[in-house]
Amino acid sequence: MNSKTLVAYFTKGGASEEYAKVIGEMLTANGLVVETCNLAHDIPDVAAFDTVVLGTGVRISRVYRRWKKVLKQKALSSKHLFMFLSSGTAIEEPDKAVEKFLRPLVEQYGLKPKSLVSFPGKIPEKWAKLDGQKETMKPDKAKAWAQEIAHQVQSK
Ligand SMILES: Cc1cc2nc3c(=O)[nH]c(=O)nc-3n(C[C@H](O)[C@H](O)[C@H](O)COP(=O)(O)O)c2cc1C
Predict the structure, then answer these.
(1) Has residue 133 got a pLDDT over 90?
(2) Alpha carbon of 119 to ligand 1 centroid (Å)
(3) Which of 12, 23, 59 is the pocket-test mutation for ligand 1 (most atoms within 8 Å of CB)?
(4) What integer best gives the mean pLDDT of the chain?
(5) Which 8-state DSSP code applies to residue 52?
């Protein structure tokens, strides 16, 4: 199946962009037709896609406001929807990050995602020095998740 897929993200620190790229590459390698979109530049109409992957970061307990513009689109309810978060909480407690930051939005907007995940975000340099933690990114997790997405979409 040549499913048309949107991978859209909003980032401030760069983590969500890195994960979106890894995911887009993996989906493409699995034969999907992928369009990757930085929501800072454009808010695409999701109606044009079969599968939608949405990623955001979180700061001060809030996901980015511009990212939520996509969540408001009515057409999202008929898409294969997958959502990811990049966050500091996810470094130690990925499930907690999902429940705290993504689940309330899924309920608020009445979404039916096939999968919700969180990936470890970037720690700003000045904070990283405090606890010695510098390299937190786990692109392999995003790759594995993208592989699952490809399987789900292609088995439809
Ligand atoms: C000012 C600031 C506030 C943050 N607040 C939170 C927070 O409340 N909860 C959390 O889990 N991570 C927090 N983080 C970590 C970010 O989620 C992490 O940097 C992530 O990479 C952000 O995604 P992005 O790089 O795609 O913008 C914060 C980071 C910064 C710089």
Answers:
(1) no
(2) 11
(3) 59
(4) 94
(5) E
